[in-house]
Amino acid sequence: MQLSVELTMYPFNESYIPPIKGFIEKLNTLPDLTVQTFPTATVIMGDYDHVMDSLKTLFKWSVETHGKAVFVAKFLPNTELLK
Question: Which residues does UniProt assign to the signal peptide (predicted)?
Fold first, then answer.
């Protein structure tokens, strides 16, 4: 099953751009994901399990690297039905 996730990050830092850029850069290094970045959100698409595992890993990395942040997400499973 395919999954599309629209993700927005709100870091708890005065300097919020570096954590957001770092998260997106790290996300773009992961294989087998389609990533589209917009001014207000990033959309991640791929195999359901791979997307979820990747987000789990990236959330942990983000907290360990940049500290706390709020992530707001919208999940749309079975995106292949939209083609």
Answer: none
Q: Residue 80 contacts by C-beta under 8 Å, 6 or more apart in sequence?
A: 2
CA gap 32, 27 in Å, rounded: 11
Q: Is residue 61 within a helix (H) or strand (E), and if so which, with residue range?
A: helix 48-66
The pairs formed by 56-59 with CB atoms below 8 angstroms and a separation of 24 or more are 58/23, 58/26, 58/27
Burial class (CB in 10 A: 0-12, 13-18, 19+), 6: middle
Reported as a single tens digit per residue, the pLDDT across 56-80 is: 999 999 999 999 999 999 999 987 6
